[in-house]
Amino acid sequence: MEMEGGSSLGSGGAVQPISFPSWRQRVFYKFTQQNLSACKPALSPTLVITLFLLMGIAFVPVGLICLRASENVEEFVVRYDIECIPENYRGNKVAYIKDETISKRCTLSIKMLNHMKAPIYVYYELDNYYQNHRRYVKSRSDKQLLHGLQLNDISSCLPVESHNGLPVVPCGLIAWSFFNDTFTFHRKALNLSVNRKNISWKSDRDHKFGKDVYPFNFQNDTLVGGGKLDPSIPLNEQEDLIVWMRVAALPKFRKLYGIIEEDLDADELLTVHLMNNYNTYSFGGKKNLVLTTSNWLGGKNSFLGISYIATGCCSILASILFALIHVKNPRPQREPSCSVWSRKSSSR
Amino acid sequence: MKRFVYINDDSSPISFCDNRVSNRKYTVLNFLPKNLWEQFSRFMNQYFLLIACLQLWPLITPVNPASTWGPLIFIFAVSATKEAWDDYNRYLSDKKANEKKIWVVKEGIRKHIEAQDIHVGNIIWLRENDEVPCDLVLLGTSDPQGICFVQTAALDGETDLKTRLIPSACVGLASEQLYKMKGVIECPNPDKDIRRFDANMRLFPPFLDNDLCPLTIKNTLLQSCHLRNTEWACGVAVYTGNETKLGMSKGIPEPKLTAVDAMIDKLTGAIFLFQLVVVIVLGFAGNIWKDTEARKQWYVKYPPEGPWYELLIIPLRFELLCSIMIPISIKVSLDLVKSLYAKFIDWDEEMFDHDTNTPSHAANTAISEDLGQVEYILTDKTGTLTENRMVFRRCCISGILYGSASGDALRDAELLNAISNNVPDVIRFLTIMAICNTVIPIKSNSGAISYKAQSQDEDALVNAAAQLHMVLISKSSNIIEVNFSSTALQYVLLDILEFTSDRKRMSVIVKDCQNGKIILLCKGADEAILPHACAGQQMRTYIDAVEQYAQLGLRTLCLGWRQLEDDDYNEWSHMFKEASSSVTDREWKLAEICQKIEHNLEILGVTAIEDRLQDGVPETIEILRRAGINFWMLTGDKQDTAIQIALSCNFISSEPRGQLLFLNGKNEGEVFRSLDRILRTMKLTSSEPKEVAFVVDGVSLEIILKNYKESFAELATLSRTAICCRVTPSQKAQLVELFKSCDYRTLAVGDGGNDVRMIQQADIGVGISGREGLQAARAADYSIGKFRFLKRLILVHGRYSYNRTAFLSQYSFYKSLLICFIQILLSLSSFSLFSGVSGTSLFNSVSLMAYNVFYTSIPVLTCVFDKDLSEKTVMQNPQILVYCQAGRLLNPSTFAGWFGRSVYHAMVVFLITAHAYADEKSEIEQLSMVALSGCIWLQAFVVALEMNSFTVLQLLAIWGNFGAFYVINSLASAVPSFGMYTIMFRLFRQPSYWITVILILGIGMGPVLAIKYFRYTYRSSTINILQQQERSGGPVYAMGLGSLESQLKSSETDMTPLSITQLKNRNSVFEPLLSDSPTATRRSVGSSAFDYLQAAQGRLSSSHSRNLKNN
């Protein structure tokens, strides 16, 4: 087809596809001749300088807004894993945590620094804890969490898949190492209620964890990992487990414990009764308790704000720099590279 | 080794293979193993298979094995299907050929059997227009003289008719006798030489006496030829099946690998090594960390004692994690774009030859990039640079030059006068023109005579003779009928002393029926005829005439004749017969015998035939030379003609600007001295603004290629231009081999059968589908209609292909490295080194696979529409081709740039994601989607930044793909059983997601843009300058062009130093090719170089005259 078109054209002449009536054929013809109309943006100084300037102008305010949002978040972090060990066990923390006969009860007193508005999120924070370890990440069975004992193939849960010939529900290392410190808050001897409902993702409760799947044969081994589960409560209501099962990508992470739905005043004294059950001592991990408010950007994190401001400033600087170079050297006397080659050749 | 074929003898003791033709590579049974074996002989495929197998081990695989197996099986299935389809088509065509019905004589009766059942020794009958089913020796034809005509187009591409005649022993046999004929043919074992068949036949009684009858290729009908203009013919099968000449010459040519492919392979190897280093380091670190730290981490529950291979597990996991460093998509993408490049060549209308209605065609779809990297073009002359449309222009008969005034001897009144006055020498001259040839006159029904000739020169001569009233009317096996001024003359053709490229002449011996005299008519090249002239003849005028014609670029032939005594002839004829029936060294023996009679010639005159230059040849050569491509002309023609053609097509410049050195000599010593002198001159003048070229002839070349290959290679690298005349096809191929051994990219262009070897040998073979048949075009990688299309083929198609592939391949590595580095960074986890080194994949299998095969592969494919400069600009500034030649867009240093970019982008993506999505947001699925989005955003903008022009398709692919990423992931987020259920919707609702992604984009692209802008504006290459001019519009563009050209001229017309340095500085990484090129001062030696020239020329003429005397 295009050959007929060709014979009607002069060779090398302007392309006038007269013989192509339809638009589509015309486009196809242009395509075959590599002649589709194209826009060729040029990296002109004006364009680049404006681009950098605009980027800077846009980034700095966004950065300021983000920084302000982050500043507005009130956050209170307290590390408790060291404090909660009695003086006489400080030398051998692992022995303390492993000894089940010793009570792990511990009381912390916190003095609030600033006023915190409800809702206040209570997180526990673990550091140097590798939920992203390959062996760990893989050791779960999403199907079992949804379908329970009906599912027989739980080999992905190795090494915690069955005990005494019976399958473990929920199986896998993640569930097995379930975090089991508990916190209760008191405010001037009054109990401060912490809402422990709806702390997990609704989608997880509805679609990932079965509502008639009950814990079975869980933590029955001689070697007990983390917390135990009430076998009478279905998995989709075990919200702490659901939260724990959402694996963190980084070795330092926070997981939601509950929500305090009352405002806390500045200088207010809070007493936290906690059960320091979870063993982070054997691998040098840290445990923090975090009380924080939240806003549209999330928790306290000045990273985005600062980076935006820094990037914005850099790009404004770059645009100024380019503008200066451009003004000083409007169209640099460029030599085609061939002259550069000849220079090189003479030096050889 | 010989084979004996017993004609029509079914009880023959020796059995040869049957006539089943098989071109198939596979059978149904061996297809799978054989095809897989072939595919796995490539390194990349082995690598991917290894990775895919390792992934089957669930203990170490970071992702679902399907993410590798899927693409791998897809790739394999595609190429296997293609192979299978091709093979099936071959099977079908074989089957058609094998089941064709053929008439065969069996036990005295003619039977219809299938072609595959033909056996050696069977007598086969063919009708007009039948295809010959196997190699036959002709036994009988419908023609009483025993000749028949065949068309050998399928065999060698030549479309003219060729005569075939029955062996003398079979002359006069009636067709009934042929049924019962018995005999034996002694012939060589099967070979692939379609021009030789040295055999003997002996018929058994009662047919004839026991004489040995010689057989030549003239007595054969080869497989796949067609019988034409002959009612029937019959012959005995001598070679069958795959042992025929055609079958033997079939062979799969070696696949050509482009420089770009080689570079990509090299880079792949480097990445592989890098990967191994990463794997070993991380694997080692991971094992240490496991032993020191992970055992303490009770929640990981490492068993105290692992299996024996425990140490291997972590390294292997990293190997798998890093395996995506080598992109599996690159092969598919490259194959795809390469076939599109080829299609663009096929489609290109500016390379469509309107004269012959032939489009250009890329037979080899894999080597388009190489076109952009050509450094040397070796070109044939006749038919390639010239039109190969010969026209008789002038002649010199017994010292009188005709046609000098008007430029056309046919209209020269003086000549016409001489003819009408029956001047004997002129008549004889015309007679030779008319009958000393192998032309076949064909009389059409209307009585008009047309000529079928193998050689264009003969065609021109016969036609010219016809116009000068000497008309060749008919030619049967031994009677030639000529009509001169309406009187019919008859000649009995006694012998034809054929033309060979060694003899450079041909003669016929005829008996003049008018007076019964036997005469020898001879025509040939001057140096093959003049030395054999009889003593006492005045040679001067002829030598002058030859020289004069050659100066005008005309092809000359000398004509001579000699009367033979009957006794002499009979004696000679006996020897000739003997020689022509010898089975060994026949050609040489024949030449020897011919020599014995082709002497004492009376020279009649010289013919001059014009071969016009093709359109646009000088411009094409000019442009391509400005592009830094060096031209060598390899021709079988004589030195003077070659030089004249070279001058007229800008190949070399005339004296003040150019300088021509002659390399010649008769023996080793002379040649060596000449070579040495030229080499020195070349070195000295290489910095001079002069175009130095050298001329070498076939004889010297033979000596050089045998003894002084190294110095010649050095000379070849120094000289931009050379003319090799009188070279044989095998020398052409040897020269190509020489350039290849010096690591130059060579393109060979030719049009005839004598160029086929050169074309096949070269990195790129270009065939001109010209008048000498399609043989060259068939063997070539690219076939074009006209020489001038070469510039577009190289500058437009080659250049774009190279640029596009360079971008595509490096980008493919970049995007794979990017995702891989993010994985590695996660393993290193950035906070404290040597922590959690366990080989976890951040991304899930589906995302990884989609990223590699889909999101990042589709947009970049549209780089096939990218044009950095418009075609017009490229044509006007061909010197920018040097960027492609020197491989500046794809080499280790540019690759390092891409590598660095991928490291930088990986850091940006990972660090920003890790910090923005820290603490309570660090859920792994969420974080991985943020990182993946960051990558996709960066990809889209990197592609957009690196493209130079955007057509609708590119915009659609880049931004459509961008949108597709979100659509697909949203869909995946809607499926509850997927790991990423609801993730995308969550992210969409988080302002921090968008803020993070834009931050990644800003920080990732900012510096890239800044560097690109800075280099584009302040460190700009010629390409950049042209781009700027092109984009800033008309007037500036023109001015810029002018300045560029002045730039070019400022270095004076010295393309030589420019190009040499261009080549020298291909790039810093390559070994400089011409490192020892001299930089010495030159003025002082200029004159000495001239002396050499003088000396050389003197030597030439003296040797020439000595030549004449000696012989």
From TrEMBL, chain A:
Q: Which UniProt keywords apply?
A: Membrane, Transmembrane, Transmembrane helix
Q: Does the keyword Acetylation apply?
A: no
Q: Where is it localised?
A: Membrane
Q: Where are the transmembrane segments?
A: 47-67, 303-327
Which is one Gene Ontology cellular component term of this protein? plasma membrane
Would you say which domain of life the source belongs to? Eukaryota
The text of the family note is:
Belongs to the CDC50/LEM3 family.
Matching PANTHER family: ALA-INTERACTING SUBUNIT 2-RELATED (PTHR10926:SF29), CELL CYCLE CONTROL PROTEIN 50 (PTHR10926)
Could you identify this protein by its name? ALA-interacting subunit
Automatic annotation (TrEMBL), chain B:
Residues reported in the UniProt entry to bind ATP: 380-382, 458, 499, 523, 555, 635-637, 726, 732, 754-755
Residue ranges occupied by any P-type ATPase C-terminal domain in the UniProt entry: 777-1019
Q: Where in the cell is it found?
A: Endomembrane system; Membrane
Substrates-to-products reaction catalysed: ATP + H2O + phospholipidSide 1 = ADP + phosphate + phospholipidSide 2
UniProt domain P-type ATPase N-terminal: residue ranges: 5-69
Any stretches that span the bilayer, and where are they?
Answer: 270-289, 813-834, 846-865, 898-918, 924-945, 952-972, 992-1011
What's its top-level EC category?
A: translocase
Q: Does the keyword Transmembrane apply?
A: yes
InterPro entries this protein is in?
ATPase_P-typ_cyto_dom_N, ATPase_P-typ_P_site, ATPase_P-typ_TM_dom_sf, ATPase_P-typ_transduc_dom_A_sf, ATPase_P-type_domA, HAD-like_sf, HAD_sf, P-type_ATPase_IV
User: What Pfam families does the record point to?
Assistant: Cation_ATPase, E1-E2_ATPase, PhoLip_ATPase_C, PhoLip_ATPase_N
Q: Which GO terms describe its cellular component?
A: plasma membrane
Describe its membrane topology: Multi-pass membrane protein
| Molecular function terms from GO | ATP binding; ATP hydrolysis activity; ATPase-coupled intramembrane lipid transporter activity; magnesium ion binding
Coiled-coil spans in chain? none
UniProt binding sites for Mg(2+): 380, 382, 751, 755
Kindly give the PROSITE patterns that the UniProt entry links to this protein: ATPASE_E1_E2 (PS00154)
Name used for this protein in its record: Phospholipid-transporting ATPase
Organism encoding this protein: Apostasia shenzhenica
Q: Its encoding gene is what?
A: ALA2
